[in-house]
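name: query_chain
kind: protein
chains: 1
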Amino acid sequence: MRTRGAWSFPGLVIAAAMLAACAQPAPTTTTTTNTATTPANAGNQTTSTAATAAPKPATTTAGQTAEGTLRVTLGDLGAESYDVIIPQVNNVIVLIYEPLLRYDPQGNLVPWLAESYSMSPDGKLWTFNLRKGVKWSNGDELTSDDVKFTFERYISDASKSPWSPLHRQTVDRIETPDKYTVQVYSKDPPYLFYPDAVQGTFIIHKDYFEKVGLDTFIKQPVGTGPWTLTNFTPAVSAELTANKDYWGDKPVWDKLTLLQVSEESTRIAMLKRGEADIVGVSNDNAVKLRDSDGFQLRQTKASTIPGLFLTGYWLQPGPTSDVRMREAMDLAINRQEIVDSFFKGFGKPAAGNISLTELHWGFDPIWYSIKYDPARAKQLLQEAGYPNKYSDPVVRIFSVVQSSATWEPELMQVISGYWEGVGIRTEIVPMDFTAFRSSWLANDAKIMGGVAPWMGVGSGSAANSIPAQQNHMTSKGVNISGNDPQLDKDFFEMVAELDANKRLALWKTVQQEAFALHSVLGIARVFDQYAVSEEVGDWSGLDYQSGGSNAMVLGLTGVKKR
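structure:
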C-alpha cells in the first residue's frame, strides 16, 4: 500500500446535528388512497388519485418556552454559500429552509410545507396544496409562486443539485392556479417516484431573491424553517436564533450555536469544560466515555452505511473496468471483522448497495449474498489477468472525510489492507471532500477508475429514495458508478410502471442487475455515537432521513432541555 498527499483535506464534515435543536412535529397522516411514491409501501400502490395529509401545525413543545443556548460541535460548517442548488451546500441550510415533503420515521413521504399532495391516475399530474399561513423569516407568506420559482431554479442549467436531473426529466411545465396550489405536469413517460425528488428540494423565497439578487441571497438567507441565521463566521461558527413565527413546533432553545471543531479530542474537552452540549465521538471514545460522569452517551437510531463507489469504471482501461476485478474487491472485504474490531461492535455488516436495507420496499436479499472469500477473490484476479494485463495495475482509493465520520481515512487504510492481502496493489490519495466531489461530477480522469468512499444515511428507517438509486445505479445518475444499458432500460420502465406488481418485479430485476456490476460496495451499518451534556434532555439522535440536497442531510427528532 502506498499513500501520497496530492491534495490536502481539512476534514470536511457534513453536519450530523443539523436539526439537533429543533423539536419538529411528529408527522401523522390521514387515511386516504395510496400515495404512488411512498417507498415503504410502493409495492401496494394503485393507479388511483393519491392524497396524503400533512401534520397539523403546533405552537409549543412539551410546554417549554424557548430559552438558553444549545452548542453543537461539527467537524466542518460546509460551503460559505447558502444557495440550495450548489453541489456541496452549507450545513446550516436545513435549519433555515424546508421542503414540501419529508420522510417520517417509518420511511413514508408525508407533506411538510405542503398540506397535501396527489397524483393523477395516469401519473402525469402532481398537485401540491400548500400549508396556509406559513411565513418567511422576513414576515412574507409562503405562496405557490415561491415553489414554482424554486422548482424552475432546480431545473435550470445553473443547478448542480443531485435532485435536479429528476426535476429535468420529469417536469414538462408548472402551473399555479392560485397562491396555495402548485400543479406539476409530467413528461411522458411519467416518473412515479417524483415526490422523492421533491423531498430533497428546499423552497426559497422568490420575491426576496429577486429583490436582493444572488450575491446577497446566498449570504443572508430568508427561510421558513425553525431557525434564522444571525451570524456566520466561515470555518468558525454559525449562530442562529429560534424563529418565533415558525408554523410548527418551536425550538425549546432560544439560540443555537454550531461550532466548527475538527479535532475530536478538542470536542470532548469542550464538552467536559461545559463549552459544548452535543459532540460526535468515535467508537473508541464511545467505549471509554460510556460510564463517565457529567454527560451521557447517545446512539443514533438511524445508521450510517460507509461504502465504496468504483467511479467511472467503464471510462478507462484500468483494473476496475473488469467485473471480475470488482467482484474480487467485494469478496476480499471482511465486513464482520470490520464491525467487531474497527467499529467496536456499534454496527452490523452491510454488503451490497449502500442505501438499501431489509427495511426498504422491494429489498432483494441478493445484496447480502457477498461473503468474505479471499481464496475466490484471488482466483478472480487470476482469471482477469491481474496485474500483468494492465500497464497501471494500481487501484487508487480517494481518502476523504464526510458526515461526522472522522474515522473514514482510517477505514480506507483497513480496506486497502484487505485488498493488498489478496494481491491488489493500492494507493491511498488524501483529498478534500469538496474538491473530490467536484472532480467526480466532472468525470475528471484523475478520479475515474478509482474508489470513492461514500456515506449512505438514514437507513434506520424504511426511507428509500428511488431517485437516489437512479443516481447510484444508472448512467443518468450524478455519481458516476453505473453504466449498463439493460439496467437503464429496466429502471426507467420501473419508475413509469403504473401496475404495482409489475413495478415491484422490475425493481427486483434492477437490483439483481445492479448487484452483478459490483460497482457500489457497502461495508457496514454503523450507529453513530454522541456525547451530550447534562443540559440536554430527551434526544435520541438522528432517527430518519430528511431534506436532501447534495449533503447527506439527516433529520432529528429534536433536542429537549433537561
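note: The longest helix spans residues 500-517.
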